[in-house]
Amino acid sequence: RFPFREELAAHYADYTGRSVERLDYYVVLAIFKLAAIMEGHVARGMAGKSDPSRIKFNADFVDRIAAKAVEIARG
User: Fold this and answer.
1) Listed residue (72, 29, 31) closest to 39, CA to CA
2) How many Å apart are CA 12 and CA 18, to the nearest integer?
3) What is the pLDDT of residues 23-69, one digit of tens each?
4) What does each C-alpha distance from 45 to 21, 37, 49, 56, 65 come to in angstroms?
5) Is 58 exposed, middle or buried (0-12, 13-18, 19+ CB in 10 A)?
């Protein structure tokens, strides 16, 4: 099984000795980076440079993950 987020963070903290107190900041940053990459896929699809059948899926994915990042940031 895959570890839960909390288990993975605890393992990382134990293994590295680093604090994970502000982990949410990095999670939000990573999600927004992924959203930016996915927006590039949407733009390429709209420009006819990639599979246009994926535009809606990719755009919806961006909306969902951006909303999740906002939710995490607001705590």
Assistant:
1) 31
2) 8
3) 999 999 999 999 999 999 999 999 999 999 999 999 999 999 999 99
4) 39, 13, 6, 10, 19
5) buried
Give the closest residue to 38 by CA, choosing from 53, 59, 68, 69: 59
Q: Which residues contact 18 (CB under 8 A, 6 or more apart)?
A: 12
Residue 59 neighbours by CB under 8 Å, 6+ apart: 42
pTM above 0.85, yes or no: no
Helix axes 55-74, 23-46, angle to 10 degrees: 160
